[in-house]
Specification:
heterotrimer, A mainly alpha (548), B mainly alpha (118), C mainly alpha (951), B: 118 residues, mainly alpha, 4 helices, 0% strand, C: 951 residues, two-stranded antiparallel sheet, 40 helices, 4 strands
Amino acid sequence: MSHWIITPILLPTLLGAFIVLSVRHQVALQRVFSLVGLSLLLINALGLFVYAQTGDIWVYELGAWPAPFGIVIMLDRLSALMVLLTAVLAMCVMLYAIGSDWDKRGKHFHALFQFQLMGVIGAFMTGDAFNLFVFFEILLIASYGLMTFGGGTRRLQAGTQYVIYNLLGSTLFLFALGTLYNVTGTLNMADMAARIAVLEPEHTALLRVGVVMALMVFAVKAAILPLHFWLPESYAAGPAPVAALFAIMTKVGAYAILRMFTLAFPQDSPEIAGSYDVWLLPVIVISLAVGMIGILGAKSLSKMVAFAAIGSVGTLLIAIALFTPEATAAAIYYVVHSTLATAALFLIVDLVVSRRPQWQDTIREDRPMPQNGLVAAFYFAAAIAMAGMPPLSGFLGKLLILDAAVGNWWLWGAILISSLIAIMGFGRAGSLVFWKGYGLPETDAPAYEHPRQPLAFVAIGALMAGIVAMTVLAGPMHRFAIATAEQLYDTDAYISAVINHTMEESMAHEKEGSSYAPVDKDLIQTEGGERGTDHPQEATDGHEGESH
Amino acid sequence: MTIEFLVASAIGVLTAAGIYLILRFRTFPVILGTSFLSYAVNIYLFSSGRLIVGAPPVLQGYGDYTYSDPLPQALVLTAIVIGFGMTAVVLMIALAAYLSGGHDKIDMQDDDASEDRA
Amino acid sequence: MSLFLIAALPFIGALLPGLMIQAGRNTCSTWTGIISLSALIGLLVHAPAVLRGEVITASVEWMPALGLNASFYLDGLGLLFGTLILGIGCLIILYARFYLSTKDPMGNFYTYLLLFQGAMVGIVLSDNILLLLVFWELTSLSSFLLIGYWKHLPEGRQGARMALTVTGMGGLALIGGMLMLGNIAGTYELTELLEKRDLIQADPLYVPALLLILLGAFTKSAQFPFHFWLPRAMAAPTPVSAYLHSATMVKAGLFLMARLYPVMSGTAEWFWIVTLAGLITMVMGALIGIFQNDLKGLLAYSTVSHLGLITMLLGFSTEAAVIGAVFHIINHATFKASLFMTAGIVDHEAHTRDITRLGGLRHLMPITFIISAVASLSMAGIPPFNGFLSKEMMLEAAAHTYLGDNHWLVPALATLGALFSVAYSFRLLIHTWFGPVRDDYPHKPHDPPFGMWLSPAFLAILVVMIGLFSQALVGGLVDATAASVMGNGAHPHAHLKLWHGVTPALYMSGIAVLGGLVLLALYRPANGLWHAVPRPDAKVIFDGVVGAVSSAAAWITGTLHDGKLTRYAAIFFVFAVLASWHAFTGGQGVTTPREPMQADIIPIIAWFALIVGTGVTVFYHRHRLLALVVLGIIGVVISLSFNYLSAPDLALTQLSVEVVTIVLLLLALNFLPEFSPRESSTARRARDLIIAGGVGVAVAALAYTVMLTDFAMPSIAEYHLANSYKLGGGDNVVNVILVDFRGFDTFGEITVLGIAALIIYGVTEGLLGSKVRLSLLERTPNHPVAGDEHPLMMVVATRLLLPIAIMVGVYIFLRGHNDPGGGFVAGLVVAIALLMQYMASGYDWADQRQRYPYHATIASGVIIAAITGIGAFFNNMPFLTSDYGYFQFPPLEKFELATAMGFDLGVFLAVVGAVMLTLESLSRLAYRRGDVPDEYPMDINPSRLPKSEDH
């Protein structure tokens, strides 16, 4: 059997451990290994992406334990896309971190980076609710390390807040999992979906609580108001490459919502209707507004981009929370764009910070920085993409979302007006930071010196190239997005992929069992003894021993 | 007094204590608060497998035994370990923030925000 | 030439100037010129066909599923605008070559210019309205760059931002309008959409779509009340003003109205909104224009006024009006562009554009004078220049237009507008060129080099020729354009000639000319009056609004995100509880709860201890050490209760974790203040108590409900119980789940621990590398260090304990699979044992005796775990598939070895490494200056007695 589905998770893990084990003192070697590892990861992700195009769903049962009893790794179009996106983003960010020597400012940057990837990719691929929690924790704790990487008072204090806020989120996640397990008696997402579909109404109260708690957990990740407060300070205070990498983290929350709430907790199912649909869109719109307002109201570039990230995720989540295939397709197109654009902006801001020793990223004039023109050009392009102005993918994504939201004119109003505010904000900041300096009286002070850092520019250029590619290849991208959305809403296929898989596997590998008799008869009979038993739905319907 | 009531109320009290401490102004009580919260949630997660006395999930060989639900126990075990790691990290970061910032206030102070970044 | 190429050429060409500037300014401008010239030629080769009424199209799919395609088509309207854009573009490029000073980066300028040109061409050639949107916004962006070209000028930056904001707003409105339109018509292709007039106008969305689209058009074309940005944009270099703000960009709005005329016009809404907006803009723009002292300002307001004129004509929605509009678009482009360029020449030569400082220039710069004179007269609508003809048409059309049932208002206002425009035209002419030569010009003006006046001269010639031979020159073009504007198969025919006989229009323009001259004669008093009358300054209002919005945004952002975690957390808790409560009430709870268990005395005591402990911790939380100790007790109570509730593994884990946690907290407390100050007010504490209590009650209720509810469905745990031994090879189901059923979770879990240790190590390194280190070395500990740092008893005890503890660890490790225990607990036990050595004998002593590379330990732990899992690949099983067998080494009894053990070993190593690395990091902070690494295990030691005085 093929194991390429698990390697995207194992590779970063082993690489991270290996870096710690052998080369933790040689940054140069770490860089080499990181880049090699990321290249392999990229290839692997591409392979999986191509595989997912076939449209069938790959179920990988860890430890050969049949779902839902063990943990499964799943690959469908959506997860393949997200993994690929992560790999691409990671490569660009790593190039920047190397090009700007960020990775030299502290210990274990590369190891933590790899572990971060492990967490993110695992979260995208796991098919098990509790395992999702574990990967959330992995990506969180790695992010704690990365966020406080390099130290400094402000960063450490912001880091403390960031950790504590996310600890609250994790706690809530455990509450949610406890409640969901208590109702459904399972942890496998697909199985959970199948069981909820046939749940007696008398259990809906607890189920709804679990569902809403889970939603709030994901909302914290995705930074939806009023659970977004961890984001601005930490993204602004954190190291730029890390903030850029974090562009994918909010998407993890969005992904989780998209996955769980199309598969298991659809808002139109009678068990769940009315539990969250009444408030979800409104709060998303508010967070969109707050994000975009923040672009205009922020005092520093990095804060501005942090708010832009919130606004962008808000736009994305509007599309997600409509829960129609069309809107979901729009969301899937937009998520890629949003990730690349946010990351690019964070890196560009770092270029500014490092080139303006006096005012750093404060939004005010300063003497023209080294490579002002180039940086300004990058900023201009990235801001256009972020604000959703033509011709870049942001505009196309926005068109898709608006088109999918026809009839909900209040959403139109929110999106369009907030875009205007974003445009004003970016325009203001840009002209203050990049232009106004030329109006300053000539001083005899020497101009700022700064290394040219070609690699850093290459990294940002790569991200921008990605955005351009999204624009030019919008047609195929959109077609893929539509296919992905259809796959998402074909939940029966997803569920039966897990369950049928279990069935055919059941015969496959017998393990030479223990030397003496089974332990607890009735339990075994009700459950079908062999590893790889039938799904409980079948198992409990009285065909004892069928699978013996 | 039923065991369920005792456990439920204990969870409630631990949660309340944790939250109250988390709402304090200094990092140390806040960290204590998070430990309280994790106590609470661990017991909650554990109790989602239902309570049962004197039936540990260690197989007794032949015959008909009832066992407590092992799955939540395993989950809680994982949660405890992860929680431990988290506590250690937040403790260290908070300590570092105190040592370099000179105070252990949990809220951002304006003078810190203005400080240049490393 | 393919339409694609025509539209693409400027964009591709935009790369050239940046490179060619290396080869000098002439090369740069030449290549730029070649680009747009070839585009122009490419367009004109289609002209004959288009004038015959054919339509050239070219299309390729872009986002078919959305309906956005790169499809272009060329009809009369497109041809007219395309010619204007590219033709005047060439002239501007030539002009700019001489206008720009050597200090200005010419490469950027031409790049921006070509970008803009491409965007404009794209607009007028687009067949797909979404594609049109793309180009539409591109014009806003490129004009932002062009207006802000002189970065050092504040007016330039502000003007650019104002233009971007206003046109950006219009652009967003347009997005909405276009999407609505497309949704009504079911297509975004203009060629199909324009056929669906009835369908569109019958749709309820027609009016909103119309409003949004007009908002876009009006902002772009500076129609009242959005006219104010245009004069501000005059801060741009004159070539930009001449190009964008007379000939092309501001006409994009008109183009849009003309383009959608077939489906949008003819309704009452259209008539009223468009006509009134145009009328007001025309009159008001002209009036303001009279009193502008800045040449370009005057021209800007005149442009506003003329745009209003054309808009009004489109509003009339009659054939004659449309023809007049089309014709005036041509004429205005010619005379206004040349006027702008001459104004630029004056500025360039005399170093001022202030009319009050000019005058008498006709002697100094005769050529420029002639050009300017011709253009001004045309602008005033004086025969035989082309401006006269189209103004006649306008007045004629106005004369037949009723506003409601009022038949004189429109003609009267139109005449008034014409009168004003005569006034400012002549003011421009006379106050600049006539009068005595002055000797106080900032710079002595004279005619510019040939290349600079060539472009305006060419346009001036056009002005004359079109005036004289209108029908022959542009008749066909006007017909074709008007036809495509009217759409619906109309075949309008224009009769362009100077003399229409004595018509109402003739009277009206007569009045206009005379009145205008009179007004100019009375300029001084009029000017005084004008400045005496208070009137709103649009810029002030706009800046006010923008300023208000910005400061509001800043306020919202600031107050919402004030960095107060205490507030954030409070919001989190409240929101979580409310949402969960709302969800709960929406559902249905179980009707038959399960039977609760009666508690005997022991759990009640434990419960009591727990409650009291919690209370104490909360109450004395400011006394940190005390709080910590009590926390430890609580942890012990909890682990006991786990044991009581038949979870021995949990009990063990909880206990050992508790110990390590408390030790870590103690070590940290060593650096932190011992007491928290009392900071929160009583009200604040009350608030927190309410929140905390509320959440607590909610959680307790939830937990109680959960515990009294049966599983809705059989839990998957039954399978684990059933197969733990049979397939997992272990009796301790929890452990089997951890290392086998759900080994992947555990794999992640140890990774988390490892990462935690790495972070702690990294943070410590960071601290020791920073200025903090000094204060650490100098710090005085909270307590004076006890004379007896390493008490004898403890040292001895820990020494004895170490081997035992390690044995216990191994034992726990081995039995783990079948009885409570396992790698994790074992790891913690061993770690604690080692940790005790440190506590008893001090870091240095212990460290000298046990040099473990903790990084390596962690890493190898993770790797071993992973390798064990990967091993399964080789017998073709998925990751983490375990295998096991039984072995017997006499005299030991038969025991079991499972691959799961290898996994457990990984866990063990990772745990030990993580805990020890964490401890090591913390202790490295503890160094103080003057600390002598004490190589002795304990203080009391006979061999050291003599030295012990100096303690």
